[in-house]
Structures are given as C-alpha cells and as structure tokens.
Amino acid sequence: xxxxxxxxxxxxxxxxxxxxxxxxxxxxxxxxxxxxxxxxxxxxxxxxxxxxxxxxxxxxxxxxxxxxxxxxxxxxxxxxxxxxxxxxxxxxxxxxxxxxxxxxxxxxxxxxxxxxxxxxxxxxxxxxxxxxxxxxxxxxxxxxxxxxxxxxxxxxxxxxxxxxxxxxxxxxxxxxxxxxxxxxxxxxxxxxxxxxxxxxxxxxxxxxxxxxxxxxxxxxxxxxxxxxxxxxxxxxxxxxxxxxxxxxxxxxxxxxxxxxxxxxxxxxxxxx
Length: 272
Hints:
Elements: E1 4-7, H1 12-17, H2 19-29, E2 33-36, H3 44-54, E3 57-62, H4 65-70, H5 72-82, E4 86-89, H6 103-119, E5 123-127, E6 135-136, E7 139-140, H7 141-148, E8 155-157, H8 160-165, H9 170-176, E9 183-186, E10 188-191, E11 218-221, H10 230-240, E12 244-247, H11 258-271
Parallel strand pairs: 1-2, 1-12, 2-3, 3-4, 4-5, 5-8, 9-12
Antiparallel strand pairs: 6-7, 10-11
Helix pairs in contact: 3-5, 9-10
C-alpha cells in the first residue's frame, strides 16, 4: 500500500494543546507522514526537528489562498524549511468559486502561484470540496480549473468525500486525473439520501450555507466506517500514480475523540 499520512486538521484541538505530544501519538499509531493546516505559531526549524525526532515525513501543507497571495515567498520559505514537497490551496471563499465573475481571475492567480512553487522546487495542489462540481456549461468547475491551469503549475489533491458528495464516483474521478494525483485524501462519511444537507460546511468550521446539518443527516466517519468503497479508491490512487494517501476527518463522529477516530482509520487501512 502507498504510504499513509494524516492531515493534522483532524487533530487540531490536540495540536493546539500539545503540539509535540500529538505528533508523537500520530507516529505511534503508525502514520508515516503528516499534512499541515497551520503551524500553531511554531518556528519551521522547530517543526522540522520534531518531525525528524518522531520519524514523520512532511508531506504537504494546506495554506489559505489569501496567505499565498499576501506573501508566497514566505509560504514557500517556511514549508521548504520543514521539508514539504507539496503546498495545497485548501478552500476558496464564495466569491472565488466556479460560476462567479471572479473565477477566471482566480485561476490566473492560482497559475501564478503554481509557477512560483515550480520555480522553488515545490508543487502546488488544489484540495476540492463539492462546490467545484457546479456545471459551467457542460463541464464541472473543477475540470475547467485543471484544463485552464497546466499540470506543471497545479496538481490535484482530490478529497474523496467531497467528490462523492459532489455526485461523482471517487475512484473513477481519481482515474480521470491519472498522472496528476500525487496526494489523495481518504475521507469517509455517512449521509441521508443524496441531497446535501444545508450548512454542511459548519462541520468543517465554516459557517456559510444555511441551517446546521444534524449528525443524522451527515457525519464524518473514520476511514472504512462510512459509505466509501475504500479498497476501490486506494486501488485507483495506486493506479493513478499517487505518492501519498492522507487520512482526514474534519470532526470526530459520535463516540470518538479526534485521536481515537484517526486511530480507527489507520488501523482499518493497515488491516487491508
């Protein structure tokens, strides 16, 4: 199986309380690498020291688009110091999404950021949600993105949960972008029916779309404990040329803590 990393957003509250101790626990569980979602005010050199101490590889980092646009040189310098080969745009606000007047300009900005990464020896990726699956004519917004920005400036980081919620088969969608899928997000969930609950993004800390989704309507789950066909997804990732599988669970499900949920995920993956 491909090496397995953890998106540290999954254990963000634990990281806030005990940065080093949480890294130690993640390594002890069997994760081989980590993906960052902020450095919790830690110096990059100190972060690198701790990763080396616990035998964890720095896979990638989620960095807000606004931070990249404000000072991409600093973003590149910080994550190069840590040893991340990949930097990912994790999310875009509504005004920058497919179907908005600003979307073409957003793609130009992403292209420019990707060129800067390439010049520095890094790779820019885009981490999708489901809003990229809006149709622009006869194409999804996410496909327009990857057609507009060339592969040398932008690679995919397909989040398999959101691909599914967006209406596509995650394994088939990974294969569609074969050769452009260096990092794949493994994320599992359960959802009532096929209609997306309102205020779904409140579950990932973003309050932007209506009434709160109930746990009965939608719940993130440890990998292997939801509706996703994980063996098919993993096989597609391997076939597509992926380098890493990254576990992410935005919120622990009922009966789990952040740490116990990601432990269940790695245990399931190791059992395959």
